[in-house]
Amino acid sequence: MVANILNTREVLEKGYKKYSLNDKAFFIPQLEANNILIPPAWIKAYKRAPTSDLNLDGAIEDIRYLLGPQIRQNSYHIEWTRDSLTPLMPSVLDWLHEEIADSLDQVLGKYNHDFQKVKIFPFSLSLNCRIAARIVVGKPLCRDVKFQHLCEQHSQLLVVLSMILKFLPTWCKPLVVRLSTLRGVQRQITDLVRPLVLESYRKLKLGDQDSKGTVSEPPEEQSLMDSLVRTAISRTPSLTVEEDVVHEITMRFLSILFLFSGSPTLTVANMVLDLVSEPRELYFDALRSEITSVFEKYGGRWTLENLKELDLTDRYVGCFIKESMRLRPAAFTIAGRKVINPRGYTLPDNSATVPLGSYLTLPMYAIHHDQNHYPPRTEDGSDFDGFRFKGTENNEAVPLVGSSETFLSWGAGRHIW
After folding, report:
1. Which of 218, 286, 304, 406 could disulfide-pair with 91, CB 3.0 to 4.6 Å?
2. 151-187: per-residue pLDDT in tens?
3. β-strands 35-37, 26-28: how paired?
4. What is the crossing angle of helices 182-205 and 225-235, to 10°?
């Protein structure tokens, strides 16, 4: 268990080579339950497993200690993202472009054309937090320096505490969270968000808006706070006290914030580092030419259509991003599920029955670094091949958004394939 904590990557790679490549599972001991790593050959059977046997919510149950039990019990904010945010993406995209441009101007200087030193990970975290905040709370709060710092601090605390809680027994998890600075940060964010939440809630109470939880056109106030409040009231009828509404919306916002600032932060940072680490003539010129061409084709404005065009299988941009995600995944494992069937879960090869409370995951990092699937670049032996996924006469192109048994950055659940 100590080796797993200190040398996770090495442990997973050894287990992958010894067991996964032979279509066998292996386990890593933990304090509360074993972590079972299943081989890629079982992925299709794994994703078809009934939710009465394996459950995603059980695998992320520690979230109740960090953001409250209601986040797990009623995850309506996920549905809100799909039903309210996704249909408005063409308009919301203008907000995102505005925040990205303003962030770059602050870091690089609006009229400065000289090279600047930028700490890419802090910048990526700040940018993703700011984008999430713009969508939910809007301007000017999303640009408030104190608010930005608190959002970044909260996202980092969630990552650290999640890793710590994973190795602790249940009885001491609430204590560890209370001893951390998480609750203090949450209180400060709540104080800043409170006026916006109360404004939306009071408008709703006055009958100025319906409570369906969806919107059909971009709101004039340039945020989706009203929509989120409507959804919360609709899905949680017990919310009648104003302070309870404020707390509820703040926790939902922080959950959405974490979705934006977790994996996307690492993906953006790694992609930029990969781009500047390679010789300019290999990737930079081709990517810039392609982006400029698509940008000008749509009248010098970013739209959902031209972003989709950059992800076409014959485009360099989507291929480059996918290779960066492949080589530097955001986690060592993915697609975690918890065994919730009291009788356990029988592995697809019938070799064993995994007991109640155990966790099953896929060794994503090891799969992504398997040279049988991803051979080194022929020119110089580099593991990174930015156009690996681009179609050729002998190789079918692979789109950016999509998973397979050898590419798992988007997950391995029913929603993927």
Report:
1. 218
2. 999 999 999 998 888 778 888 999 999 999 999 999 9
3. antiparallel
4. 90
Q: Give this prediction's pTM.
A: 0.86
Give me the pLDDT at residue 261, please: 86
* DSSP code, position 351: S
Domain positions in the chain are: 2-69+332-362, 70-261
So what's the pLDDT on residue 417?
A: 44
Is the torsion defined by CA of 92, 94, 100, 105 positive or negative? negative
Rounded Cα gap, residues 110 and 97, in angstroms: 15
Q: Could you tell me the two tokens for 19?
A: 């067991």
Residues whose CB is less than 8 angstroms from the CB of residue 224 and which lie 6 or more positions away in sequence, other chains included? 84, 85, 88, 92, 135, 136, 215
Q: Which amino acid is at 45?
A: A
- Bridge-based pairing of strands 353-354 and 26-28 is unpaired
Confidence label for 128 from pLDDT (cuts 50, 70 and 90): very high
Are 323 and 385 contacting, i.e. CB atoms less than 8 angstroms apart? Answer: yes
Residue 160, beta-bridge partner list: none
Q: How far apart are CA 264 and CA 330, in angstroms?
A: 9
Pull the structure tokens for residue 111. 């009229």
End-to-end CA distance of the chain: 34
Residue 327 identity (one-letter amino acid): L
Neighbours of 238 (CB within 10 A): 8
- What's the pLDDT at 415? 52
How far is the CA of 97 from the CAs of 56, 127, 134, in angstroms? 33, 11, 11
Q: What is the pLDDT of residue 273?
A: 94
DSSP assignment letter at 309: H
Residue with the bigger pLDDT between 216 and 135: it is: 135
Mean pLDDT of 318-322: 90
Could you write out the three-class secondary structure of 83-124?
HHHHHHHHHHHHHHHHHHHHHHHHHHCCCCCCCCCCCHHHHH
Three-state DSSP at 311 gives: coil
pLDDT the model gives residue 78: 84
Supply angle C-alpha 347, 351, 352, rounded to 5.
65
Tokens of 238: 């017990």
What per-residue confidence (pLDDT) applies to 216? 47
